[in-house]
Design brief:
about 375 residues; mainly beta; lipopolysaccharide transport protein A fold; about 0% helix; about 55% strand
C-alpha cells in the first residue's frame, strides 16, 4: 500500500526558459515539514515517518529527508522509534535508507537501543538491517556485530559474527571496561523475552578493571537469557584459571552473570599439573576464586588418591578442603587415612599435601619387612599398624 504523504510545500517545479527544445530537469519539491504514514491491508498503522525538511523528486519517486524520525507499530501500538541524520525514501516507501547517527529504540519490553551508521529499512518485509557498526544496548550489556537484522513483527534480532557481548556488573558504564566479555559466531536474540542463542566457537572471559583475564571459558555454542543474566555453554567446555594454574574440562556449563558463578550438574575433570580432580558436578564461585564439588569428590596424584563427599579448591590461595567421609590412600606403606575433614594446599609443582589438625583421624599402614635372600624360609606376615 502506498504511504500517504502530507507536508507544507515551499518550492515547486521550475519551468524551462530559453530554447524549448532543451529539456530541463524539474527542480524537486521542497517541504518545510514532511509526514509519511503507511497502513496495513487490515487498516492498522504500520509505520510513520516525519522530517522538518525534505525534498521530493517526482520523476524518481524519491524523498530526501533531514533529521527523520520514524515510528514502527505493532497492533496499532508504537513498538520502535527510529532516528537518523538523513533518510532516503525510495519508490514511495518501498525501501528507506537512513544514515549518520542512526538509532532504533525499543519503546516497550527490554527497551533495547540499537545504534549504527547505516540502516536499510524494508517496511513491506517488516525488516530493518543495520549494516555499519551495529551495537545493541540494554541496562547492563552491549552487543556488537558485523550486521544486525531486526524482524519488527517478531522482535527477533539476528547478529552476524563475530558477535561480542560485553556486560557490566553494575549498570552500563561505557567509561569503564566491562567485567565480562563473551565472543561467539552468529547469534539470535529475542528482544521480547531476552532469549539468546549463538553459534560457536564460544570464548568467555571475566576481567578486572585493568583488563587482565581472571577466568576464561571455551565451548561449542551457547543458549541463554539476557533478562535472567544466565548463559549455558554447550560441551565440550574448558574453564581456565589465571596463569594456566588449573583448568576444568566439563560438559554443559551455566554462567550466571549476576551471581558470578559457573556451574554444571554433570561430571567433570579438573587438572592442576599432575593432580587430577573429578566430581559428579561443580560450582565455581568466581568472586571468591573457589570451585566447590558438592558430591563425589575424587582427587588423584602420583602415589595418592583421595575420596570425599565434598571438596573446595581456592585457586587464589591454593587451599583445598575435603569434608565428609574422607579417605586418603597412599601407595607408600599402603597407608590409609580416614577423617571427616582433611585440609591441604597445592605445592609449587602442583602436588597436594593434606593434614588434619584438630580432627580425629584413623590411619592404617603396613610396613614390609625386608627379606633375606639367603634365607628361603617364609616369614610370617606383619599385621597392619593402626593409629
Amino acid at each position: 500500500m502506498t504511504p500517504v504523504l502530507l507536508g507544507a510545500l515551499v518550492l515547486g517545479c521550475s519551468s524551462s526558459t530559453g530554447d524549448r527544445s532543451e529539456i530541463v530537469a524539474p527542480l524537486p519539491f521542497v517541504f518545510r515539514r514532511l509526514e509519511l504514514e503507511q497502513k496495513k491491508s487490515s487498516g492498522d498503522i504500520d509505520w510513520k515517518l516525519s522530517s522538518p525538511e525534505a525534498r521530493y523528486e517526482l520523476s524518481r519517486r524519491l524523498v530526501r529527508a533531514n533529521r527523520p524520525v520514524g515510528v514502527l507499530y505493532n497492533k496499532n501500538k508504537p513498538s520502535f522509534e527510529v532516528r537518523a541524520d538523513f533518510a532516503v525514501v525510495i519508490n514511495d516507501g518501498e525501501q528507506i535508507m537512513l544514515e549518520g547517527d542512526v538509532q532504533v529504540q525499543q519503546i516497550n519490553g527490554q527497551k533495547i537501543l540499537i545504534k549504527g551508521e547505516r540502516l536499510r529499512w524494508q517496511p513491506q518485509l517488516s525488516r530493518l538491517v543495520m549494516e555499519q557498526q551495529p551495537r545493541a544496548f540494554d541496562e547492563r550489556s552491549r552487543i556488537t556485530a558485523t550486521v544486525a537484522t531486526l524482524q519488527q513483527d517478531t522482535n527477533d534480532l539476528t547478529l552476524s559474527g563475530p558477535v561480542q557481548l560485553d556486560r557490566w556488573q553494575d549498570k552500563l558504564a561505557l567509561t569503564v571496561k566491562p567485567d565480562t566479555a563473551v565472543r561467539t559466531g552468529r547469534a539470535f536474540w529475542n528482544l521480547n523475552d531476552g532469549a539468546l542463542k549463538a553459534d560457536g566457537p564460544v570464548l568467555g572471559q571475566r576481567r578486572d578493571q585493568e583488563g587482565v583475564v581472571l577466568e576464561q571459558l571455551e565451548g561449542r555454542e551457547l543458549t541463554g537469557n539476557t533478562q535472567e543474566g544466565v548463559i549455558t555453554v554447550k560441551s565440550p567446555v574448558i574453564v581456565t584459571m589465571p596463569k594456566n594454574k588449573g583448568l576444568l574440562r566439563a560438559n554443559d556449563t551455566s554462567w550466571n552473570f549476576r551471581k558470578q558463578t559457573l556451574s554444571s550438574n554433570n561430571s567433570f575433570e579438573g587438572l592442576i599439573n599432575q593432580t587430577q580432580i573429578k566430581g559428579d558436578s561443580f560450582r565455581a564461585e568466581l568472586d571468591q576464586s573457589s570451585v566447590v564439588i558438592p558430591e563425589g569428590c575424587r582427587i588423584q596424584q602420583p602415589g595418592e588418591r583421595l575420596e570425599a563427599r565434598q571438596c573446595r579448591w581456592n585457586w587464589k590461595t591454593d587451599d583445598v578442603l575435603a569434608t565428609g567421609g574422607v579417605r586418603l590412600e597412599r601407595e607408600s606403606n599402603h597407608q590409609i587415612t580416614e577423617a571427616q575433614t582433611l585440609s591441604g594446599s597445592v605445592g609449587d609443582e602442583g602436588s597436594l599435601t593434606f593434614s588434619a589438625p584438630g580432627n580425629k583421624v584413623r590411619s592404617q599402614l603396613r610396613i614390609e619387612e625386608e627379606t633375606n635372600s639367603q634365607d628361603p624360609s617364609p616369614q610370617p606376615s606383619q599385621a597392619p599398624v593402626l593409629f
